Amino acid sequence: MCLIFIAHQQHQDWPLIIASNRDEFLNRPTEPGHFWGPQFNLLAGRDQEHGGTWMAINRQGRFAAVTNYRDPNQAIGKVSRGQMVTDFINTEASAKDYVSGLNPSDYTGFNFLAFDGKEFFYTSNKAESIQELTPGIYGLSNHLLDTPWPKVVSGKQRFAEIIDQQTVSVDDLFDLMTNTDRAATEDLPSTGVSLELEHHLSSRFITPTADNIPDSHGNYGTRTSTIILIDHKGHGRWYERNHDQGLVSEGPTAEFEW
Hints:
The protein has 258 residues and is α+β, with helices and mostly antiparallel strands. It has one domain: 4-Layer Sandwich (Penicillin V Acylase, Chain A). 17% of the residues lie in helices and 31% in strands. The chain has helices spanning 82-89, 95-101, 150-163, 170-177, 195-200; strands at residues 3-8, 16-25, 30-36, 42-47, 55-58, 63-68, 110-115, 120-124, 131-132, 136-140, 220-230, 236-242, 254-257. The strands form two sheets. A seven-stranded antiparallel β-sheet has the order 3-4-5-6-7-8-9, with helices on one face. A six-stranded antiparallel β-sheet has the order 10-1-2-11-12-13, with helices on one face. It is globular, with a radius of gyration of 17 Å. It comes from Sessilibacter corallicola. Pfam families: TANGO2. This is NRDE family protein.
């Protein structure tokens, strides 16, 4: 997953609201969101290459997500980052204890979010400490939490407007995540890739191109957009749109409730 917005204790009906995109190579084998894991308690898509996932929630309200940290010169870790998500969901450890117990050197650069139903924590093996998420609105892409990349800044602003309404519009949240506007050249971050590629990756929804991202895996783009709403009793709704060949999909939307 490469872009996620979080509203923690910001809406009267939905104390947790998540809007996210997963960006990935288009031919990496993937299963769409479904219930799996022990007793079919875990709701997530599945990366068929390594068996983990980029984001998951269970029927008890435990939530976790991971994004990559963009650094083309970093060492490759020995453990798949997606394993952190499933491991956390399937344990009873508190969010704080779990993120504190991670061995950062096991993984390629990552950002990790963990919510145990009460407390919400963030960590990264590119940061020096863990951070508790107090009530607020947060944005995360492929740098540290709330790094002011253009798509994070503009996305948080629009996200806040949407959830400020009494009734949260899922369609508006999908529109937020499928915006293809790219940042101005002068506003682009410098992450060690070419300026051309930096510009290509600056939109919230990334359309595929083989020319800008030559890789044996093929074209790269936004594969999935997911919206999660959790109420005060822990009841949840999951809405997912899978984008065929990296092109914006108007639907159908897969829906799950628990």
